[in-house]
Amino acid sequence: MSSRETILTRVRAATRDTAGTPAPPVPRDYLRVHGDRSPAESADLLAENLADYRARVHRTDDDGLPELLMRLFAERGTNTLLVPAGLPPRWLAAVDATRVHDRAASTPYDLDAVDSVLTGCALAVAETGTIVLDAGPGQGRRRITLIPDHHVCVVRVPEQVVDSLPQAMERLDPARPLTWISGPSATSDIELDRVEGVHGPRTLEVVLATG
What we know:
Layout: H1 3-15, H2 39-52, E1 56-61, H3 65-76, E2 80-83, E3 98-101, H4 108-112, E4 116-119, E5 123-125, E6 130-133, E7 150-157, E8 161-162, H5 165-171, E9 179-181, E10 186-188, E11 194-196, E12 203-210
Parallel strand pairs: 1-12, 2-3, 2-4, 4-7, 5-8, 7-12
Antiparallel strand pairs: 5-6, 6-9, 10-11
């Protein structure tokens, strides 16, 4: 008998008497949100926590968004910009960079050669400083935000900001490919030397755009 078969046999024996028994209810008496905040306070908390994760946070209104994006990509020296389907054309109105479309045929090497990627998001969590993407319009495939070195993500305030993870889970579809982003990609070795850009973008810039 293989090790796998041995383990499965023991699991079946341990659960034989519970077959068909409904799972016990899971208590959900935890706090759904920590504190009572106005939409503006939630946006401030989100910005604070994003900055703690070393994301670069920018704030603007809807009218100023195209000019801000133009400035961010110009300062970065972006020549090629990966653009997912469904991104509002107005966001790119002032950006001077060659558009690269999100294609299924693109290889990791193709994506690695792109200077920057611009996306929207599904929502953002204020208490954790987390951006969530679900491959919806303006977000593209998961890999386009994992391979390029520079990611700019636009969060619409207040409609895409929630306070807590329980609130986020209520609004997300678990069947969609969810990507949870808390700051730029980073890891540390045994000596706690931080290295960024290991399995995701080295630089994450988040634009909080008030409608």
